[in-house]
Amino acid sequence: MSSIPDRLYIEESDRELYKKIEEAIDLFAKKTRKEQFIFAMAYGFSNKTRIPLKKKNDLFLAKDLKAEDEAIVNAIAICEKGSLEIITDKNFTYSIAEEYAHAGIRLLYEKIESIEFGSFWKDFEKDLFESFNNINFDSQIRYEQNSTSRA
Amino acid sequence: MRINSIKLKNYRQFGDIEIAFNKKQEKKDVHIFIALMGTGKSNLLNAINWCLYKKEPFLSRENKEKFPQLNSKRIEDAGEKPYRMMVEINAEAFNGQMSFKREQFIKVIKKPGVLNNTCQIERDAFYVTILDDKGNSKIYTNEEAKEKVRLFVPDGIKDFFFFDGEKLDKYFKEATGQNIKNAIYQISQVHLIDKIRDHMEKVLSDLHKEAGKLNPEIEETRRELERITGELETANTKLETCKSQIKIATEHIDEIEEHLRGVPEVGELQKQKDALVEDNKGQEKRYLRKVRTKQEMLFTSGIDINLFPVVSKVISMVEEKREKKEIPPRIDPDVLKDIIQRKICICKRGIDSSSEEEKAIINLLNTITLSPEITREIEKMESSLKSKKLVLKSYTSRMNEITSDITAIDGIISKNKEEIEKIDKQIEGFDMEQISDWTSQLREYGTARDKSLKLQGVIETQVSNLEKLQDGLQKKLDTEVKKETKVADIKNDIFFAENIIKVLKKASGRIIDLMREKIQEQTEKKFLDLHWKSQTFGNVFINKDYSIVPVHKATGFNCLSGLSGGETEILALAFSFALHNISGYESTIAVDRPFTNVSGITKQYISEVFVKIGDERQVILFLTPDDYTSDIKAVLENEASNIFTMKLSPDEKELVLEG
């Protein structure tokens, strides 16, 4: 029986990408490694891409994950496996999260490279606007994008 | 009176030169000097002034500090011996010849290095020689020589003979009522009457002293009267100074207001602009804070929106499990197992084997497929996921709120910027520094005038009180003297002296008034005679405060401020002419650059005026080649007795005269 992992990893080469994204997005630089990881993981998941890690490099300790972080990491694993029981397998849940974060950080970097400098949030807001409008809540909630040119 | 010739030796640009102002037959007594700027035109006028008054009024402060009076070539060649610098004016006056000669012997002390040479005056002399019509000559020096200059053109009124054309358009702004009053005072010769009055006041004072020796009451009153008279004189001097300050401030205020006419309220606009710039700084900070908050929202919501499918799916899975009762509601399966094994309920009651209770517990245990650990984990997760879902529902309203906040702030910033641009456009093209300088000067002069006006009120009250006091004391003194029998002998002398003083006071005032009226009459006559638009103007008044007022014929208004540069120049010449006629100082009129502030056809009119003046008086004009345009030349060339061209020598150190 494998032991419970005490930390989460990224692909070694991704560390440079995290740095570059920090340089491009001011707010990203102000976030903790864990927050950056979760953001990348969510981005990778929304793009339905996960890539297995080849050469692992630790990023932060598992104890840094709060209940709400643990909840979404578990939720992704449950969806992948189709079973609630999988949440006890931390090796699996963390590994899935790492694979999505690995793909996510690469996709984020590609996006930043492809758009005009300083326009990330405007572009991101637009993508979120589309994703949000596809969400089907119990009651129909829609929001109208009303971004300013400087946002 | 006219200048026949001027000799100059080693004075500024003039090496050794004599200029003869011969009046040619059939020509007017008009003499013209044409020279480029900086050649030495103004210095010829300075030479005349230096010779007569030892002053150089046409020298800029810069030139005064930069260039020594001694010709620069002499300074270069200087040896041990001193150089003689001299200006001599030979003039026709009082049916004879007058020669004014000022000379200085200057030694140049050479020191190594740049700007280190200095000039030391070893001897300074001034002589006036008068040759009468019988050929007798007499030389005057010191005070006598100065007295002869006063006969030619007194220092106090020289500005009405030697003009700086560049300032003629502002002539009546600079030659204030006070200057004109002084000029009239000088030519009225009332100073002689004033001298007699001063003398009589001393005599009266001595008589009072004498009377006081015989009666202590008289002495005491006399002393008090003397003290009050002294205080009154001081107060009157202060009042004059105060009035003069008010006048100066008012003139400056008028001048600055003239400059600022049509100029926007720069101070107010600048304040508005500063307030807008300051507001925008605050708005920019607010804007950045809101943008940062929005980015934080996008970061957090980005995670939640991107993961919404898993959140939603897992919540559904958990709910499905709960519906199937696969998730035990607050029941631990181990407790159920323990009950079945021990056949004892939680309430300590026994349970029979194969009883309905046992069957029910076994069924319940079979439906529970998840361990208590997993169940606890799922419940915790479910709560977090549901909370995320709930927060996400308000995403729209939160995002719309922050976006509209940002849009509103952005709107304020843009509006402020538009306002700033508008203000910038309003003040565009204006010299802000100059305007700000004028505005602050206007404030300063306004404050100074207000203070002086207040002070004037205080001093006037003081003067009035002192006059009453003086009057009372005078009456008291008169009464004391009258009733004192011991002073009977000097009573008559006192009253005689007092009457003389009264008469002299009246006479002095009356003479000045008469002079003013005569000059007014002559100025008006000459102005209308010289002016090419004689129908435009009615009278010319010299007010009691000695301000000059030309009246517009049609409207009857004072039109001094509406006169063009050329018209003001004509008025100045007319006034000077009147002053010359009344005073008897019918001397030369010399004008440096008379066309500087005149344009178009007016130049031609003014040159015709000078030709006209040349019928009665010697006129010397100093022009640049640019001033001497073809239309001016057409008027002056055939009328002028002499046209001199002034040029600098090739080494630019001495002046060469042609013509």
Low-confidence stretches of chain A: 139-151
Relative strand content of chain A: 5-15%
Helical coverage of chain A, percent range: 40-55%
**Terminal-residue CA separation of chain A:** 51 Å
Q: Give the C-alpha Rg of chain B.
A: 49 Å
| Count of individual helical segments of chain A | 6
Distinct helical segment count of chain B = 19
The tally of strands of chain B reads: 14
Q: Ranges of chain B with pLDDT <50 over ≥5 residues?
A: none
Q: What would you call the shape of chain A?
A: globular
Distance between the termini of chain B: 24 Å
Strand content of chain B: 15-25%
- Report the oligomer: heterodimer
Main sheet of chain B? 6 strands, antiparallel
Q: Which pair of protein chains has the largest interface, and what are the residue counts?
A: A-B, 41 and 48 residues
Which strands sit side by side, in order, in the main sheet of chain B?
2-1-4-5-6-7
Domains counted in the coordinates of chain A: how many? 2
Main attributes?
heterodimer, A: 151 residues, mainly alpha, two-stranded antiparallel sheet, 6 helices, 2 strands, 7% strand, disordered C terminus, B: 659 residues, alpha/beta, six-stranded mixed beta sheet, 19 helices, elongated
